[in-house]
Amino acid sequence: MSQSQEERSIRCLVAKVGLDGHDRGAHVIARAFRDAGFEVIYSGLHKAPDEIVQAAVQEDVDVIGISILSGAHNTLVPKVVDGLKEYDAFEDTLILVGGVVPDEDKAHLKELGVAEVFGPGTSMEETVEFVRENAPER
Amino acid sequence: MTLSTEELLEGILDGRHRALARAITKIENRQDGYREIVSGLYEHTGSADVIGITGSPGAGKSTLVDKMAKTYRDQGLTVGIVAIDPSSPYTGGAVLGDRIRMASNVGDMDVFFRSMSARGSLGGLSTATADAVKALDAFGKDKVIIETVGAGQNEIDIVQAADTVAVLVPPESGDNVQMLKAGILEIADVFAVNKADMDGADRTVQELEEMVHMDDGHVSVTAGHHGMGVEADVDMPEKDDAAADAPEPWETPVLETVATTGEGVDAFLDTLQAHADWLAETGQIDAKRRQRTAEEIRTLLREDAGALVERELAAHGGVDALAERVLDGETDPYSIADEVLEPFVACVDAED
User: Does A33 sit within 8 Å of B307, measured CB to CB?
Assistant: First the structure.
């Protein structure tokens, strides 16, 4: 094992925030990320925004994928964003939202700093490709 | 936001979580500057108790670690945790799921939990684990817990990384216990039969105790008892005139825990502390750390030498081209190795 060069791996936090218990999507995306060669930290269900922030900071992830199917994205996502800012972790973390988000909310979330919102029917390849292309340079 | 090596070092010693997290990433990725970071941290290490938790998959390691961290926090101590999960042999990807069990320490930044992928290492830890532990130690954590990959029989790298190793054994693993004998039994400083509320726990405790006692008097509990090939009496001259009261050997205790409810966790932590005290009183801790450092130097040198060899390989046209020559019947791997190493050998010979 001789490695003089870097061994970078994209680290992702797949996060379930809020009260909805639908984690099939999160599991599927976690698996897809794993198969794409990423390192995936799965948060588990029913997490509060500050738990997600704590995990994102400590794990130093490149990407946070927040799965929300409860419709509470307008409340929960800003809290995650603010928490990341508090730890200087906002700027170089790619934030994605997956779930059922109405079009008018998408623009709002993107203004907050969410890079992309993936709705129902998005293919795994598309999401993986997006992460590969947009994972922050560090 | 890119932090320089100096900023990262300063940030860690300053207690900034972001700097610690980023430094661990650099260490994991072997990014430029990671060596400077680790060498800069070195003089600030040595104050944390490093505890290794290992055991088969599903033995309850993560849940127990969660309860341990909670108990330490209640005692006013700060905790760093490194949890390793396996990586895919095909894609290198990994799902790191140990964090899910950390329910008792939610929102408490003084428990610093870091998930790590084994990144292809087979010994239960990743190459970067020891250096990540140093970062947590230098950061000022009182207790650093390493949770290994779910271990079978031979994932015993933890011995090198931790001062105290606890092996978790689930009940009803009578047959497994037999198998444990060769590898994992030898590395345990403490056994915990977790899920002790399940049927069969008593029997497992009994079997482990029998096994521990069977070894009484045979396994000398010395610096070399982990089988790393270091004589127990290296550099311990202070023991010469104290031969009469030779250090009490450590007898591996067998405890029962129920990690989900926290039952037995206090006693478990007391036992870990007793082992740490024993290490300090007998001077074993120094021997252990000396041995660990020696191994670290060796590993580092092997890696650096490997990198030099890679450069030399490239100068010879790359390993693929050389392999092609072997396949074409022009030469053989041994001759090539001799050829590539020739300048190194010449250098070393010149020094003799």
Answer: no
